[in-house]
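As agreed, record minuted below.
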Amino acid sequence: MRRVFSEEPIIFFDQDGTLNKWRWIDISVVKKEGYFKSVLPHENVIDASHILKIWGIPVGTFGAAWLDDGHSVNDKNWWMDRYVPHIDLNKRIYVPCGSEKVEYFYEKVGREITKADILIDDNSDVLRSWEINGGTGIKVRTAENGRFGTWRGFSFRETDDAGSIASYISYVRRIAAESVDRGSTEYTPSESLLA
């Protein structure tokens, strides 16, 4: 396996619903060629990811796609090239739809997940799985999610200022890394960026 990620902890952004706006529509529409080219960006989240990269913090994407349909990954990469070109192609991970992201971490990254590996996602179930398996999750609260209050960990709103989002993610990264350095697996998460 060719290593494209460093040993340093990584901040991963989910694509659908996190970097872009997820719409609850019929799955047959979502599976059509070109659909992923049409989704709108969450500009503040994208800008925050760019700020983090400028600060020298490793960023990548970790999302799901239909890997065998011949177009979903291409459509998603087209979208990334247009809206998020600062995340290189080799730093974009796609796993099969319906799969647990953590199941593919070692295969795709080349090492075990640590508390300092952060996943930013809009799906609370995905974030819980990430944390149960050793990582740190941050939820993006959007108009489409976060209505039931089931996520109690780190979070921010996609409408928050990009600089504030980047600073918050950097803060979470720092305390997660400090917990790894201390050999601790526990720390107290804040409720949200503006809590």
Summary: DSSP finds six helices and six strands in the chain. Residues 11-181 form a domain with the Rossmann fold fold (CATH 3.40.50.1000). The beta strands are 11-13, 59-65, 92-96, 118-121, 136-141, 154-157. Residues 190-195 have pLDDT under 50 and may be disordered.
